Amino acid sequence: MYSSDGINFRSQIMTIGELLYGLRDGRIADSSVRQVADDLSADELSVDKSASYIESVIIGLPLLPLVFDGSVMPWKTIDGVKRLAALLAFANNKYKLGESSYSRLPRFQYFGDMSLFLRNRFMRAQIPCYIINPGTPKEIIDDIKKRIRTSF
Questions:
Q1: 14-57, pLDDT tens digit by residue?
Q2: Contacts of 108 (CB under 8 A, 6+ apart)
Q3: Rounded to the nearest 5°, which phi and psi values hold at 68?
Q4: CA distances (Å), 79 to each of 76, 100, 120, in order?
Q5: 78 and 67 in contact (C-beta within 8 Å)?
Q6: Where exactly are the structural domains of the chain?
Q7: Using CA atoms in the order 76, 80, 83, 85, what is the torsion angle rounded to 10 degrees?
Q8: pTM score, two decimals?
Q9: Which residues are CB-neighbours of 4 under 8 A, at least 6 positions away?
């Protein structure tokens, strides 16, 4: 049994630019994210889901939060590896948007082919994040991971 006093996390809004910079400069652990991003282009269903997620980002639909273990450096992604990988792969021109559900979005374009306006909109899009703070007991971090992975 744990004391609820040991739960220590914060809610933080991060832009995609900040998240990608965190991956690039090593503040966010990137090995699992990069592996998923590299494998993404080989699976057409994953590309379709990722393109749909990118479309949601660009048009400003509500997004699920990413969850990080910020008690260690670099931060480890607890929930959202595939979403983070989709952002990274798209920004690196690994796949292009598909048939858009919204008429004003570009169709079949890579990130680098998009207008500067849309690239800026993408990079400045805000993603809700939960970050577990340093000092949180490992048992509580493990319990949070278990709860997230078994949520309904």
A1: 999 999 999 999 999 988 888 888 777 666 668 888 888 999 99
A2: 96, 97, 98, 99
A3: -120, 145
A4: 9, 26, 25
A5: yes
A6: 4-149
A7: 20
A8: 0.87
A9: none
49-100 pLDDT tens trace:
888 899 999 989 999 999 999 999 999 999 999 999 999 999 999 988 876 6
DSSP string, the chain: ---GGG--EEEEEEEHHHHHHHHHHTSB--HHHHHHHHHHTT-HHHHHHHHHHHHHHHHT---PPEEEETTSSSBEEEE-HHHHHHHHHHHTTSS---S-SSTTS-SS--GGGS-HHHHHHHHH-EEEEEEEPTT--HHHHHHHHHHHHT--
Residue 142 in tokens: 């493990």
